[in-house]
Fold this protein.
Amino acid sequence: MKLLKQESAIQSLKDNKYHKLIIGASLKDLESIEFYAYCFTHAGADVIDISAFAHSVIAAKKGIEKALTENPKLNKPEIMLSVNISQDPHFRIVKLDKESCTECEVCIPACPSEAFFLSPEFTYNPDLCFGCSNCLDYCPVDALSFENWNPYNPDELNRLLKMGARSFEIHLSKDFEAFREFYRAVNLENVLIESFSIGSELLSKEELIQAKEIILEEVYQRPGAEERIVIIQTDGIPQSGARIKNQEKDLKAIENAKILIDSFDGEIPNNLFIQIAGGINDESLSKAHRLRVPVNGVAIGSWIRNKIIDLDPDTAKDLSKEILKKSKHQAC
Ligand code: SF4
Ligand code: SF4
């Protein structure tokens, strides 16, 4: 088991303190990707999750290298590529109908990603959208709506895995056959972490368990399965960490994790770990443990990005570090 001996992420998973920081499955703005990768490396992330594009990998690597140059003692986080095989809320972005838009500017403060701004006229940059849905409620003329990306191509994922991103996450929808077909086409030769995201308000309890069974069936029939880290991410309310409304947005993810863990009946494979996402903040990991849901880690995304987006890189990296330190420290 070469992987289990050498990767620091495995220790974090075993200690139930694994932290994936999400830059965003749909975020394409290179400057933002580099900035977050820089801050999240300084913070001590085990994994950094990005949109699956060549330019995103390059930007993330640049941010990671910059942080490592400043402090060579930092852990080098794994880059994880997020891909969709069907319609999934993580991959949606807002479309602006310019005909209807009155340029009232109401949506500007509603966006945690600063996708709307004055430059000097009202401008929308879709590359900055990560699909949280905040802005939709604010537009008085319904000029904003979602568009979803097309399903991802496994050949493209294979190409990116050769660029040095050794981990991926597949977001399952209800289309389990599409998942099987996609997964079987992925070249796992140099993969360290394979992650599968289920939930996202798309699946019932029965479907969550069915998704898990299909993941296990597919993963453990591939050669070398035991040498890779396998993560099942139970997603609650996607991209809700930065939303203005709703409290306790992490409870749905924790509830889904409990369903999943219980369904194993104590028989979880040694290299398989459970991690929560969706509305996660610096208290969610300790909350899950307090609720006796023994998850191995968390994915924090829009909540942390929202806190650092307006800060200069030095302050942003220090705050990211503080946030992760608190999250890890509070967890048991
Ligand atoms: S508020 Fe959310 S959904 Fe709307 S543009 Fe900004 S990131 Fe996208
Ligand atoms: S809230 Fe709607 S109408 Fe107003 S600027 Fe934004 S998109 Fe245009």
